[in-house]
Design brief:
- Keywords: Membrane, Transmembrane, Transmembrane helix.
- About 50% of the residues are buried.
- The protein has a single domain, classed as ABC transporter involved in vitamin B12 uptake, BtuC (Orthogonal Bundle).
- α2 packs antiparallel against α8 and α2 crosses α9.
- The protein has a two-stranded antiparallel ribbon with strand order 1-2.
- The chain contains eleven helices and two strands; from the N terminus they run αααααβαααβααα.
- The protein is mostly helical and about 350 residues long.
């Protein structure tokens, strides 16, 4: 009579909620690239300022603030490995909401708060869908892009709507720029905390992509919800500056993606530097200003420079991944021991 085998001891260690923190080489690679970006920003600013009016008036500052906030939004979604392709459309929706409320004599602060809540609501819904279904965030946010654009078009009836305020002064433009810098750099510093990366980076984890895990839901809510809120802030800032909202104002996804990737935020998710998004945004805005002063066609400055930044940024992502400490793979799933008395079948 065959005896049942002795139970096999199994060690059950639950998988970590997200990717383990990278080794110190990661931040050094980012700092090295950010130093190069800073030099490029200073050189570009010097050339453009010497040949034009880079720092005169409010336009360059507001361009940097609003475009930078949108880039920060996309960068957050990349860090959490939940790329939000709807950030541009959500910025338009927030601006349209603000404009319609202002048109109906709602106070500016209240209109701005409501517009931000609308943007946050869209992001939270997208995060819930992506987190609960484990669907790729880019696919979910693509649907959100269509929803946000449709609602914005309906709110504005396809036309431009005046907010009743004129262009803001230089002081407010610089204040918005400082808000952008504080959010972007502060977020980069916060991401250096291993616990933050582990809590919000679950969507980069190397396991079954369709398996539900609470860490994926947390990362999706933070990435899609937080990026939508920042996109809404960009849309509101733009509308308060130009005094008008239209179905296309603020939809600058290509710039946002280009600045985030060029700034060193990894296309693979999980990694990001400290001030890279700020430097890359400034570089693109200053270069764009110089090209406009040189009468370069707008289709070049709006599309081709952003596309080039995206392609270069993908290469930067790959270089940083190759020179940084690698994330350790998740452990294989534990195998349960056979029940007592179990006899192998022959």
């Amino acid at each position: 009579m065959s005896q049942p085998p002795a139970p096999v001891a199994a060690s059950f260690a639950p998988p970590p909620p997200g990717p383990p923190p990278a080794r110190s080489g990661g931040i050094l690679a980012h700092l090295g690239w950010e130093t190069i970006l800073l030099v490029l920003v200073l050189l570009t600013a010097a050339v453009v300022a010497a040949t034009g009016t880079l720092f005169r008036g409010t336009t360059p500052w507001f361009n940097l603030a609003t475009a930078g906030l949108l880039a920060s939004a996309f960068a957050l979604s990349l860090r959490t490995a939940t790329p939000n392709l709807a950030v541009g459309a959500i910025a338009v929706l927030a601006g349209a909401t603000y404009a319609k409320l202002a048109e109906n004599d709602v106070a500016g602060v209240l209109a701005g708060i409501v517009a931000l809540l609308v943007a946050l609501l869209v992001g939270v819904v997208l995060g819930l869908i992506a987190g609960l279904t484990s669907a790729p965030a880019w696919a979910v946010s693509l649907g959100g892009l269509g929803v946000a654009q449709g609602i914005a078009f309906g709110l504005l009836d396809g036309q431009a709507v005046q907010t009743g305020s004129g262009p803001a002064g230089t002081g407010r433009a610089i204040l918005w720029t400082l808000v952008f810098v504080a959010i972007s750099v502060g977020g980069g510093v916060l991401w250096l905390v291993p616990g933050v990366r582990a809590a919000l980076g679950g969507n980069r984890a190397q396991d079954d992509p369709v398996r539900f895990r609470a860490a994926k839901l947390t990362g999706a809510l933070a990435g899609l919800g937080g990026s939508s809120l920042l996109a809404g802030l960009s849309g509101v800032a733009l509308v308060t500056y130009i005094g008008v909202a239209s179905p296309a104002s603020g939809d600058n996804l290509l710039f946002a993606a280009g600045a985030a990737l060029l700034g060193g935020v990894s296309a693979f998710g999980g990694r990001g530097g400290i001030a890279g998004t700020v430097f890359a945004s400034a570089l693109l805005v200053f270069a764009d200003q110089g090209l406009i002063q040189a009468d370069v066609p707008r289709w070049v400055t709006f599309y081709l420079t952003a596309a080039l930044a995206i392609l270069v940024g993908v290469g930067v992502s790959r270089l940083i991944e190759a020179t940084s400490g690698r994330y350790a793979p998740l452990p294989p799933p534990a195998v349960a021991p056979p029940p007592p008395g179990w006899v192998p079948q022959r």
